[in-house]
Design a protein that fits this description.
60s Ribosomal Protein L30, Chain: A; six-stranded mixed sheet; 2 helices
């Protein structure tokens, strides 16, 4: 059994964990002054990098969980998510309204297959 772990900046978690043909990743924007759409765009860019570093890409996403601080702004997040994911590779996805760390408006976790 081989588990690959790619460390990130947050103590106590990795930005990517790979196991067999699966990739688990998480990201936030790290831009507290940005609005939800901007933070979503930055978060998705980080996820693109995380997936690439693990040998995957967004076309291989199996499951996504999106956490936002204000569920009434889900449409704003979707306005960035939908073009990013594209028309052909929709994963299973949940979007939850939650409390996040100060300054974070969105956090996204993904499970993907390696490409």
């Amino acid at each position: 059994m081989s588990i690959e772990r790619l460390t990130g900046s947050a103590i106590g978690r990795n930005r990517v964990v790979g196991y067999e043909n699966l990739v688990f990743t998480v990201a936030t924007a790290g831009a507290p002054a940005a609005n939800l759409a901007e933070q979503t765009q930055l978060t998705l860019a980080q996820l693109d990098q995380n997936l690439a570093d693990a040998g995957s890409d967004k076309s291989c996403i199996l499951s996504a969980t999106v956490y936002i601080t204000d569920i009434t702004q889900k449409a704003e997040m979707d306005s960035v998510w939908n073009p990013w994911i594209g028309p052909d590779n929709w994963p299973q996805r949940a979007c939850l309204g939650v409390a996040l760390a100060e300054g974070d408006l969105v956090e996204i976790t993904l499970v993907a297959a390696k490409s």
